[in-house]
Design the sequence.
């Protein structure tokens, strides 16, 4: 697949018209049409802007790759589901624990009458939930910022 086909396919995948792409790059619609027809090539600065707009490297745009699937050019976004679940469970757990501690202070607990037992159990559970939240946040931040650099 040559650069003309890539520009056309990536524009279609992105769901924008030639006019929208031209406006984004600061060129005329005719220039985009010529690039897609293969009758001219974008300048170096336009290649950089194209790579940013389509979220592909300039290398991927320029190399003549015979790929039947143009979507393979698009970068896969990392999935943040695991760290988000950790953060969500940690936050939700701490909220539930807080509500339970309020409820337990209003109602006497026949199983454990000592305040120190309640405090120790709640403190341990809260620390574990806070740890889950922090680990999820660190993983999420690492994934997010490492993809920004590449």
Sequence:
């Amino acid at each position: 697949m040559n650069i003309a086909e890539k520009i056309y396919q990536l524009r279609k995948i992105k769901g924008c018209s030639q006019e929208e792409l031209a406006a984004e790059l600061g060129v005329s619609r005719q220039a985009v049409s010529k690039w897609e027809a293969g009758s001219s090539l974008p300048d170096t600065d336009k290649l950089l802007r194209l790579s940013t707009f389509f979220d592909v490297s300039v290398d991927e745009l320029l190399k003549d790759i015979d790929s039947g699937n143009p979507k393979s050019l698009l970068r896969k976004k990392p999935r943040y589901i695991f760290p988000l679940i950790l953060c969500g469970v940690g936050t939700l757990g701490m909220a539930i624990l807080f509500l339970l501690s309020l409820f337990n202070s209003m109602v006497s607990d026949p199983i454990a009458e000592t305040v120190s037992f309640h405090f120790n159990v709640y403190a341990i559970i809260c620390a574990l939930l806070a740890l889950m939240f922090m680990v999820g946040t660190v993983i999420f931040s690492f994934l997010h910022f490492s993809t920004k650099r590449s």
Residues 3-73 form a domain with the 434 Repressor (Amino-terminal Domain) fold (CATH 1.10.260.40). The chain has two domains: 3-73, 81-149.
